């Protein structure tokens, strides 16, 4: 009986979300495009001031999250929330009486984007998908770094 | 058996047209006469009905002149009895509850849309009988279908459906879907719904446990939740640091898609520790300078929990450690020893 309740979620996970490979490729292409765009804005030499470094860092991070959210699309609540944040719109905090039913998911809803306006069940769903996408994004960024730094050997 | 059946049949129509307790009592005696006859109808009335393919079963319910000769299956007499019993129950239900009959009728419209098999049968019945008989038969068939559904639904939870049906046959109404709770649990609709929700949430927690490494051994949802939160925060911190490195390296990178994707597909171990030293060395100064500003670089996306940077040496990012410089250097050297 528990398998009956689990299987819908598993099929949901595997059908609604892509395989790791296709997800990763999609994320990678979007992220690389975003980084190309960013690159033209940056000055070619390493920036002198710390403020400049901070600005660049924030831009790259925003590009990472934005590309992740747009690759996933508006299908997921967390990606919708992220896109809303990027565009600067209002929070859309529709709260169907969530605080009563939370059972200790308070920290989680702070961390996962768009976590407040969801009930516990869908919050856990979104967390699972968010973790998957985060892992893929981190792998992509690492691989970019490694390939670029290995190609340009500074030893 | 057949004369009994034929005597019973006119009772169908009268039962539907209006509630007649006397008539129903008579019919009820007929049922009791019918019940001992077939041996396998003890508690398996509907399951036996269900064994038959639906068109045949509906025909059984509906047939006017009961041609026993034309029916192929050898267990036909018992099935007649079963079908009559079923139709008796349907009469009881529809006679007792006028609002329920409206439910049946509304369900009948939906059933007609759903069941393709029923349509040719109903066309047959049209040419055979008059309209009240048609509504009668459709009602019976729909009631049988509802019974089947109820059987299936309740059998999901427990095995007590036969007793339920028998008690219903004794004259009580059968309007709603009876969902049976498991043994020793409350049967409120509220608590049932809550229990369903809790099961759902537990199922999702299990899946999350599979997703987060190292969560399988932990028992207790609070600790698992903590682990999940830690994992998500660690991932977000990794994104932070990687973006910082990328921002530093960015002007030199040519984001040539094909070359980069090809490079990604290579095995990354020797790349990784070759690439580890140079960026760490010339980024160290930047990292030291920027670590003080880390806390307010992290804005909006997640709350600042930068104090536990030692947490960063998790197994999944042992390749890239952004700890204090001596630690990172020692890690690199240990990793070199590992590789060699």
Notes on the structure:
The complex is a heterodimer of chains A (155) and B (340). By secondary structure, chain A is mostly helical. Chain A has helices spanning 2-16, 20-41, 50-72, 77-87, 106-111, 120-151. The radius of gyration of chain A is 19 Å and the shape is globular. Chain B is mostly helical and 340 residues long. Chain B has 15 helices and no strands. In chain B, helix 1 (2-17) packs antiparallel against helix 2 (21-34), helix 5 packs across helix 6 and helix 6 crosses helix 8. Chain B starts with a helix and ends with a helix. Mean pLDDT of chain B is 56; it is low at 3-25, 35-43, 64-73, 92-126, 151-171 and 267-340. At the A-B interface, helix 1, helix 2, helix 3, helix 5 and helix 6 of A face helix 10, helix 11, helix 12 and helix 13 of B.
Number of continuous helical runs of chain B: 15
| Structure summary, number of beta strands of chain B | 0
Quaternary structure of the protein: heterodimer
Segments of chain A where pLDDT lies below 50 for 5+ residues?
1-6
* Major β-sheet annotation of chain A: none
By DSSP, the count of extended strands of chain A is 0
Q: N- to C-terminal separation of chain A?
A: 60 Å
Evaluate the radius of gyration of chain A. 19 Å
Protein name (chain A): Transcription factor IBH1-like
Organism (chain A): Salvia divinorum (Maria pastora)
Keywords (chain A): Nucleus, Transcription, Transcription regulation
Subcellular location (chain A): Nucleus
